# Entry
Amino acid sequence: MKKFLKLVLINIIAVLLILIFFELIVRYFYPEIVLSGTSSSLLKDNVYFDSPGIVRNSSGECYGVIKASDSLGFWKYNKVNFSKKRTKWLFLGDSATMGIGVENDSTFAGIVNSSLDTVEVLNPSLIGY
# Structure
């Protein structure tokens, strides 16, 4: 049984190393992340050093869905919070956290924002980050 577990562990480590190797190779030869399907009116270069960010108070299309940002450069939700009394939760992520092709209030960040009265969600997530 120990030999079997050792073999499984070695295979898992080997697969992870191969995936990391290919990820590094792709990022080396193709460092620019393409934000296709997202309106350029939503994006601004060099917001976070060399990385793009969300334009403040903007709106545009993302895979057929209208997305909007607030005055701080986070995704805007229908429930307007911005209260100093509320706890702020920062959601960092990629397209899953951004919710490409999904209305802001239907993303998991938007659901958390509308479900918890004591929490204000700040979500600057973009595709590929």
